[in-house]
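Whiteboard transcription, Tuesday session. T.W. wrote the structure tokens on the left side:
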């Protein structure tokens, strides 16, 4: 059974940092592209970052470039999102997503709130 469990969300001040984790089970992340998405209050869900199955190719939304870093630890079957220089507009629920075979799988999300 495929399962994704996000963690690491918190309340943080502007300019602060957080690292989100996505622990996967039921499949091997090294064989899949993994992504982080987010949904801010009143907005559509948007893609944050993707890391390909090789782990050597990453893509970021324009507003996250230079501030966010996606990475993976295949031994732990976990994907991470390091977020630096956080802004109030980064406040959202962050979701992990994996494409496994023909299907998309999503975690339950973790709340990130950036506020002073």
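and on the right, the sequence the group agreed on:
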């Amino acid at each position: 059974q495929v399962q994704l469990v996000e963690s690491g969300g918190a309340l943080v001040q502007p300019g602060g940092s957080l690292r989100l984790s996505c622990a996967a089970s039921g499949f091997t992340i090294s064989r899949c592209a993994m992504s982080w998405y987010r949904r801010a209050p009143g907005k559509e869900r948007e893609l944050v970052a993707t890391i390909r199955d090789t782990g050597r190719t990453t893509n970021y939304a324009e507003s996250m470039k230079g501030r966010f870093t996606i990475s993976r630890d295949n031994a732990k079957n976990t994907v991470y999102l390091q977020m630096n220089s956080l802004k109030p507009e980064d406040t959202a629920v962050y979701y992990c997503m994996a494409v496994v075979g023909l299907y998309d799988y999503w975690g339950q999300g973790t709340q990130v709130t950036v506020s002073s």
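Someone added at the bottom: The radius of gyration is 13 Å.
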